[in-house]
């Protein structure tokens, strides 16, 4: 009989939720395996708790990079390597996916993930004092705070005012269905502290449960099987951990890598690494991301300090002329990243994110070695439709910076994307300067059994295999129309509630 009822691989946004929920039953033995460290819940280092530092410490990062594609160069793809995962290094935007996202999932035949069903899990996961009780949760572990206009920097307030002057509606609550427009962000930040899941879901009380074991420094190599049943995971170095149920929550890249090394993936990918096939599946073939462009502008030194905080606290979330009804397909955010090349010594950045991306990338192994970084061919903006929408969104950003009162905070453009005027100039600058919003999804997407893109069913179970579940952003059928972290947390709540664990 296995030592553990559940073995969870990865203690990030999803894994921490799963460990907390599944260990609520004192009769259930839960093992959580994490490669990164597990700081005390109240003593995370500043580079992790400070919400104004985003992915700023290489000690807690997997050091992944994209492969170049066309004229788009390689760029970093930060992923958190610590208990709390990428929720410990992200921008801490706490906005839910809108109805349109879940309607798209349902259109693929997926059940159990409607907007109404997900609204329940969002509320259950959330703890906030803000907003309507019918929308927001009061007793969950995901601590959410609504930024006020007063908390914005002067430049961020000017951004909101400029968008309103252009005719965009004001949004009071981006998590309501009246979410198209401009306003302060909803964030999982309290007094400047990024509230990651290692703090909120795995606090002292949870970590002290006798039936929850947390092992750090464990780099999981593969899942082992007895026939079609998952029975254990093996770590680099040979350590073996048996469980009645194996759950992979190592993230969009980590879970895909473990699946491939376990013999679950495309036949050609397994063959080139000499991996014995266990289940042929399209793992890694539908990698999705949000293209993300940062354009720099010099600012007057008497209006913008070099280290303004909060770094990001407002956005315009709207739709291009090419969008479907309800498809809020871009976001524009004023941010205070340092711009060393500014002649005034200070500046602001205007970020543009395309949120409804049609481009598809590919995740591949570079080696059978679990310590080797994967090949991440994200192929952002490779679909012409994505590029057309991105150009339109960047033109909106250009109009914003030329509109009072935001125009008073701009002295000169500093990047090609800020200076470009023609479509040809914009296209070249966007392709050269864009990276991603760090919202990778869909390397093991959910779907129906006859869906050629699907790796997992609507519960995260890998098709053709028993007692192996994936529970993180890898299983999203498509990338949501907004930041992914709150949706990953809510999905983990749903999967934990539905997971049946019985020892063989």
From TrEMBL:
Cofactor (UniProt): FAD
Keywords of the record: FAD, Flavoprotein
Identification of the protein by name: Glucose-methanol-choline oxidoreductase N-terminal domain-containing protein
Gene3D superfamilies recorded: 3.30.410.40, FAD/NAD(P)-binding domain
Source taxon at top rank: Bacteria
Native species: Nocardia arthritidis
Residues that hold FAD according to the record: 82, 90-93, 220
InterPro entries, alphabetized: FAD/NAD-bd_sf, GMC_OxRdtase, GMC_OxRdtase_N, GMC_OxRtase_C
Methyltransferase keyword on record: no
